[in-house]
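Cast an eye over this sequence plus tokens and walk me through the fold:

***
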Amino acid sequence: VQLQASGGGLVRAGGSLRLSCVASGIIFTIRTLAWYRQAPGKQHELVASITGGGFTNYADFVEGRFTISRENAKNTVYLQMNSPKSEDTAVYYCNTAPTRSNYWGQGTQVTVSS
């Protein structure tokens, strides 16, 4: 199983960024997929999740700024980040929800400059 996140980088506060995660080795269409993040010195925290049927859930800190979506034909889940804040700086990962320890990939670094 591989969940490969990409699309991170340096973005200015108030800008936008789209993260992508391509999954292989799992039955993608029936799984709830999620984006998590880990800031330095902190544990992983859930950012957003999306079920196989497209129902979404967001952490309170998202405050309507991010949108999770999925494209089953491409085994891909996305995170559109609009108006990011400096506190959104972290390594972003995708995994299932609940998480599987062997599904953590390398993640993608998002750095928000103020």
In short: The beta strands are 2-6, 9-12, 16-24, 33-38, 45-50, 56-58, 66-71, 76-82, 90-96, 108-113. The mean pLDDT is 94. The radius of gyration is 13 Å.
